[in-house]
Amino acid sequence: MIPTGIGASIGGYAGDALPVARAVAAVCDRLITHPNVMNGAQFYWPLPNALYVEGFGLDQFAAGNWGLAPVHQNAIGLILDQGIEPELRLRQLQAAEACRATLGLTLTDYLVTDNPLKVELKTAGATWGTIQNPDSLLRATEKLLQAGARAIAVVARFPDDLGSQALVDYRHGGGIDPLAGAEAVISHLVVRQFQVPCAHAPALLPLPLDPELSPRSAAEEIGYTFLPSVLAGLSRAPQFVVAGHSPISRADVDAVIIPASACGGSGLLHFSQTSAQIITVSENQTTMRVTPESVGIQATQVASYLEALGVLVAQRAGVDLRTLKSGDSRLQSRSLSG
Questions:
Q1: Spatial separation of the C-alpha atoms in residues 234 and 172, rounded to whole Å
Q2: Does the N terminus or the C terminus of the chain have fewer Cβ atoms within 10 A?
Q3: Phi, psi at residue 118, to the nearest 5°?
Q4: Of 92, 94, 96, 72, which Cα lies nearest the Cα of 82?
Q5: Domains of the chain listed by start with CATH number
Q6: Among 40-54, 212-226, 298-312, whose mean pLDDT is lowest?
Q7: Which residues of 207-228 are buried (b: 16+ CB within 10 A; e: fewer)?
Q8: Tell me, what DSSP letter sits at residue 299?
Q9: Would the pLDDT of 313 be above 90?
Q10: Judging by beta carbons within 10 Å of its beta carbon (0-12, 13-18, 19+), is residue 23 exposed, middle or buried?
Q11: What are phi and psi of 200, to 5 degrees?
Q12: At CA 47, angle to CA 203 and CA 152, rounded to 5?
């Protein structure tokens, strides 16, 4: 779990947490993660044992309210914001057609919202946003689901903010993703209302070339659309089902990995009430300041994702972490009287 819109030094850019996901997937039976980790704009990486779960759905899963049912393939319905200009809309459609033709994905017919969604961006320590016409998004979703869609991809027109210092900083490898918080609002709305997989790709005008561009920002700047990774993820995203009637429930989670300063989210707080081992990574710095100690969570604290991988390997092997450190670790006597 790497919460979106909080400037994570790993996972704060499109796809820069994918190497972590690939490594974790190699040492566990099943990886459950979310679009912020897996979406790399034009890039994606198929992980056969990974479940791509939208953030609100992941919180419901962590709370024990919903379970996950893996699927072989989803038919994806595509929603395009009426506010997208004709040429930019065509670019989105071409990306969708390319994914269908080259990846073999199943897409239903697309639908344009009956009103512009009108996304607004906000920043206050973390990024967030609003949409002025949420009902238009919900009407479009309902119509696509009635037409046979099992997952929903949304492309909304986002404001172009070419001259902002925040965008300059982000392109150069610092600051916070200015889009991420509003993207989460859009997908949360659909998942909460319809309990189906959903992810979002912003529609933006291409930016001018920048020779000082950070490699972590490059995935978002090599094309006209971020849609390919969204469609690839949704194609195998698990369906949400009532907890207790699902193949995978929160009781099946053995470990949760999260940045050490981002422990205030509802998903992690719910997981901390289970037997899952909480692993916090201090190297992945964020703009949040919520440590496990500040919210009363017991956690295995590590410096890096490399060390977190070692903890997972030891857990999988049934090895006590204390036996992997130098020095004696003696058994202590405990009194029956307390």
A1: 30
A2: C
A3: 60, 75
A4: 92
A5: 66-242 (3.40.50), 253-317 (no CATH)
A6: 212-226
A7: eeeeeeeeebbbbbbeebbbbb
A8: -
A9: yes
A10: middle
A11: -125, 145
A12: 35
Place of tokens 């009956």: 114
- The 10s digit of each residue's pLDDT in 98-117 is 999 999 999 999 999 999 99
User: pLDDT digit string (tens) for 154-190?
Assistant: 999 988 876 677 777 778 887 777 676 677 889 999 9
Euclidean distance between CA atoms 61 and 83, whole angstroms? 33
pLDDT digits (tens, 9 = 90+) for 229-283: 999 999 999 999 987 788 999 999 999 999 999 999 999 999 999 999 999 999 9
Return the exposure string of 272-289: e unless at least 16 CB atoms fall within 10 Å of the residue's CB, then b. beeebbbbbbeebbbbbe
Give dist(CA 65, CA 264) in Å, integer.
19
Average pLDDT, the chain: 92
Per DSSP, 205 falls in state: P
